[in-house]
Amino acid sequence: MPALSWRPSAAIPSALLLLPLLFSLAWARSNSRGLAGLPPNAASSPTTPIAIMGLMPLSDSVEKGKIGRGVLPAMQLAMEQILNESLLNPYSLDLRYYDTECDNAKGLKAFYDAIKYGPTHLMVFGGVCTTVTSIIAESLIGWNLVQLSFAATTPELADKKKYPYFFRTVPSDNAVNPAILKLLKHYKWKRVGTLTQDIRRFSE
């Protein structure tokens, strides 16, 4: 992925500001598996790159690809901010992007290809499309990887027994219910209609 030209800014999205925190959590987990497979003496190297797997839709042909492409400038800004402030010395972050295309099969293949052919990743950043994110989040435990999502809001991912290594910076869809109830009570509405839809998890 070519370097972007945006300059560091104080207006960094919360998802990216949480990277150092998630890095610490992922690093703690990696200690139980031999520093996540890093080469010998890598931990003592002053220029040790720490690879992060960026999984999100990026293709122009996918509707939600604009979400992935839209967040790239913010990701670049955050990476520069972390680097300039030396928050992770003596390590540096190496964020690598993998296109899930918002497709279950392609997303899972991108995840496995990143593990097999890419560097040893310390954590996963991303997750936009619900079904793709759910599949990958359920697979994290097999590689002891932590995932941080900035867009997956499905309530299903709140199940910590099923997705113990998944975290997100956006609330679950269920979090809007208290606000809806307060709104109804405020206007004293007695009759309310709701529109919902059932989406089969693997229908995409």
TrEMBL record:
<dbReference type="InterPro" id="IPR028082">
    <property type="entry name" value="Peripla_BP_I"/>
</dbReference>
<dbReference type="Pfam" id="PF01094">
    <property type="entry name" value="ANF_receptor"/>
</dbReference>
<feature type="domain" description="Receptor ligand binding region">
    <location>
        <begin position="71"/>
        <end position="198"/>
    </location>
</feature>
<dbReference type="GO" id="GO:0007214">
    <property type="term" value="P:gamma-aminobutyric acid signaling pathway"/>
</dbReference>
<dbReference type="GO" id="GO:0004965">
    <property type="term" value="F:G protein-coupled GABA receptor activity"/>
</dbReference>
<keyword id="KW-0807">Transducer</keyword>
<keyword id="KW-0297">G-protein coupled receptor</keyword>
<keyword id="KW-0732">Signal</keyword>
<dbReference type="InterPro" id="IPR001828">
    <property type="entry name" value="ANF_lig-bd_rcpt"/>
</dbReference>
<feature type="signal peptide">
    <location>
        <begin position="1"/>
        <end position="28"/>
    </location>
</feature>
<keyword id="KW-0812">Transmembrane</keyword>
<dbReference type="InterPro" id="IPR002457">
    <property type="entry name" value="GPCR_3_GABA_rcpt_B2"/>
</dbReference>
<dbReference type="GO" id="GO:0038039">
    <property type="term" value="C:G protein-coupled receptor heterodimeric complex"/>
</dbReference>
<dbReference type="InterPro" id="IPR002455">
    <property type="entry name" value="GPCR3_GABA-B"/>
</dbReference>
<keyword id="KW-0472">Membrane</keyword>
<keyword id="KW-0675">Receptor</keyword>
<protein>
    <submittedName>
        <fullName>Gamma-aminobutyric acid type B receptor subunit 2-like</fullName>
    </submittedName>
</protein>
<keyword id="KW-0325">Glycoprotein</keyword>
<dbReference type="InterPro" id="IPR000337">
    <property type="entry name" value="GPCR_3"/>
</dbReference>
<keyword id="KW-1133">Transmembrane helix</keyword>
